[in-house]
Design goal:
It is a single chain. The protein is mostly helical and 127 residues long. It has 2 domains: 7-76, Winged helix-like DNA-binding domain superfamily/Winged helix DNA-binding domain (Arc Repressor Mutant, subunit A, Orthogonal Bundle); 80-112. 61% of the residues lie in helices and 11% in strands. The chain has 5 helices and 3 strands; from the N terminus they run H-H-E-H-H-E-E-H. A 3-stranded antiparallel β-sheet has the order 1-3-2. A hairpin with a 2-residue loop joins strand 2 and strand 3 (69-74). Helix 1 (7-15) packs antiparallel against helix 4. The longest helix has 41 residues, at 77-117. The radius of gyration is 25 Å and the shape is elongated. The two termini are 42 Å apart. The model has no long low-confidence stretch (mean pLDDT 85).
């Protein structure tokens, strides 16, 4: 269960479910009624409503009543914090990959240089 004091945990918990992600994808195209959001899913109206409550509780959607329609719209602000958190790890892994590529290229150049010079090849130590 998500820590209710931690907005990032609440956001990730809401995004963990594929139905809720599909709802957000639909709302990224524009606002929709609750009925429209439920159409693609083989589930009851109360089940869709439960998903919408989770998304609303996470601040990812806003719901309003317009006459007899319940309209939902995307509120992407909570995803900015999630994006920022993930971005730090993306930079970390890209840095690791860049260092790996540099190591492989440097090793390849050294092997090629050694082979081209006719020097006897020395076996590499295993880590």
């Amino acid at each position: 269960m998500a820590n209710t004091d931690d907005p990032l945990s609440i956001t990730f918990a809401a995004l963990a479910d594929p139905t809720r992600r599909a709802i957000l994808t639909r709302l990224a195209k524009g606002e929709a009624t609750v009925g429209e959001l439920g159409e693609p899913f083989d589930m009851s109206a109360p089940a869709i409503s439960k998903h919408l409550r989770v998304l609303e509780g996470a601040g990812l959607i806003a719901r309003e009543v317009d006459a007899r329609w319940r309209i939902c719209r995307l509120r992407a602000e909570p995803m900015h914090d999630a994006h920022d958190w993930l971005e730090a790890y993306r930079r970390h892994w890209e840095g690791n990959l860049d260092r790996l590529v540099e190591f492989v290229e440097r090793t390849h150049r050294a092997d090629t240089k050694q082979r081209d010079s006719g020097a006897p090849r020395t076996p590499r130590k295993k880590p």
